[in-house]
ATP-binding cassette domain-containing protein
Amino acid sequence: MITIDALTKRYGGYTAVDHVTFTARSGRVTGFLGPNGAGKSTTMRAMVGLTDPTSGTATVLGRRFADLPNPGREVGVLLDASAQHAGRTGREILTLATRIVGVPRTRVDELLDMVSLTDEEAGRRVRNYSLGMRQRLGIATALVGAPEVLILDEPANGLDPAGIRWMRDLLRRFADDGGTVLLSSHLLHEIEVIADDLVVIGNGTIVAQGTKDELLATAGTLVRAEDPAALRAALSAAGLTIHASGSDAVRAEADLATVGRVAFGAGVAVTELRAADGAGLEEIFLELTAQTQREGVAA
Ligand SMILES: Nc1ncnc2c1ncn2[C@@H]1O[C@H](COP(=O)(O)OP(=O)(O)OP(=O)(O)O)[C@@H](O)[C@H]1O
């Protein structure tokens, strides 16, 4: 379990993280989601003692990271897959990690197997690794001490679709065995298939959190009609909050039955009616974090 309580980090007059509070629970994969510069890395660095909070606390398994007796046995950390020594081979890096954490060298082959790096790949220097291979090696390094908690910053970066599926299965098994997983991403699609819970950060503050299912439910209903203007008018007249979705569809903040009834009552012929699901969640994410989007995405 990871507990973040009113965590604030200021750099001079700039507040990078502002009273952030959330919990990543054991047995769950928690996705930490936010656009570039939202404060994800700063929060994660504070969790593992690399950044001193200005105020507030971050604890892992009930203790500050610095107070854990052998952190490598309790918490696996991957903050930057490119931070490994480029001149060492993958096997050398893992062997060193086993010595630091204090586990038998035989663990290296188990780990290589776990992250699907072949013997030949493990013998190459890291400077010749693709980003995806670096991520696999980084995840293997995080797993060296068979920790209870995993903290991974953008671990899906550089992974191809098969790699993302592999990581999802690995993290799922880890959580199903009772582990706690916190992983960050600025891409909703990467995280929504993996995460059970979501914490959304924008501009240094938490803008939404809950189970993925809860957040999906708030995504509402996607509806399309032959006459979009009549549909919008009917939904608005019924007091529903609506958002444009694509060129002519509408996302309404209401359940399927309500939206269907309103359209039927107004005599509007509907051509599509479904739960807004992932696409809706993406819109919510963009709306919630709109102020922090450099590209100025409209809410
Ligand atoms: N050492 C520092 N000094 C000053 N500002 C910093 C420092 N570290 C981070 N920041 C600022 O704090 C804000 C949050 O940065 P952070 O790296 O936590 O964001 P992020 O959500 O991880 O973004 P990304 O998805 O781009 O990695 C940014 O505006 C960043 O410029």
The two ends are 34 Å apart (CA to CA).
